[in-house]
Fold this sequence. Notes:
73% helix, two-stranded antiparallel sheet, Preprotein translocase SecY subunit, globular, 6 strands, mainly alpha, 17 helices, two-stranded antiparallel ribbon
Amino acid sequence: MASSAEQLASQMSFGAFAKAKDLHARLWFTLGALVVYRLGTYIPIPGIDPLALEEVFQQQAGGILGMFNMFAGGALGRMTIFALAIFPYISAAIIMQLMAAISPTMNAIKKEGESGRKKINQYTRYLTVVLATVQAYGMATGLEGFQASVGPLVPDPGMFFRLSAVITLVAGTIFLMWLGEQITARGIGNGISLIIFAGIVAELPGALAGTFELGRTGALSAGVIIGVTILAVATIAFVVFMERAQRRIPIQYPKRQVGNKMFGGESSHLPLKINTAGVIPPIFASSLLLLPVTVAQVSATSGAADTPEWLTFITTAFGPGQPLYLAFFISMIVFFAFFYTAVVFNPEETADNLKKYGGFVPGIRPGKNTADYIDHVLTRLTCVGAAYLSVVCALPELLRSSLAVPFYFGGTSLLIVVTVTMDTVGQIQSHLLAHQYEGLIKKSKLRGKRG
Length: 451
């Protein structure tokens, strides 16, 4: 009986998916946009020797640049038009959210509703161009100093190369920003998250193949490979469990009499996720690590004879698995977990809405007391969520650096992949459910006309 019920449910789901033409169009648009993104990760910027680039990047692949190359879908290692990926846009979004929290002017714009949101989005785009220009110029200047055994990385350095590299890299970032917005509006899922997701997943087969090759040659033991695989599976299960975990605050609605009928009296609940901020904290923390560490590492290893000692210190101390790197990474994750939760969830507004519709938390007075209670519960949940994010993102980094596993599919990557997958699947199910409701409404209308 159970198996037949499951088969019937799956057949109904398949039938609903087959009839949901709008969902098909959204899925095809999302797939096409991600294919365009992947093609762009193979278009190199002009003026770079590919043989020298391969040699230079192999020397840097063991550091933090290798990790961000994975986030960029290999575009950084190939130095393509998408080498900056979407990180300037993420950094701009961080700055704008901080400004909205501390600046009265930006906070007033934010409270304007849809028009305010459009203004902030436009300011974010302008700031993205500025940050991308600064990062692109720094990257172009750093590339001119690299020397390989086959020759210089940039055969013809100078202002023309810098200008062409800056224009190409900034244009690539702006295109990715636009592409992500189009996926969000016309496709399925969050466009920016899906672009990062596609970059990570695209690099996974090559990373796994390289790891198994090291196991075949004896550079890595079979026990280490099996241990890392078990750790990855356990991390995925833990992430799924924590992302679905909720604290449900009971909500009671009073009974009210209208004429001879009694309405209300229902019991409901307010679901609060343990990880309200989702995957945003590790993405934001990774973005903040990218700019200063990249500049320091490029400057420290560009072949200059007078490299400052502080640049060498930063390059060494901020290597994956190093104490300073982990401390900064965890601190940023905890900060953004609390900050982003405060941005997306307002206990006072929630308490006011409950009071407006007559709802209340049993044993708690409506209004300010309810807001304080929700804020207290949310703060404790965010503490647990921040600790969970820190463990998932930092522990695999530490174990991987100690075991010398040569690929970067660590905790942050697993968190992004699992969370984005769950979010996208949830949106697909929502579209299917809405399509089923539309079908039921149409059938009821047809029956009403016949009657």
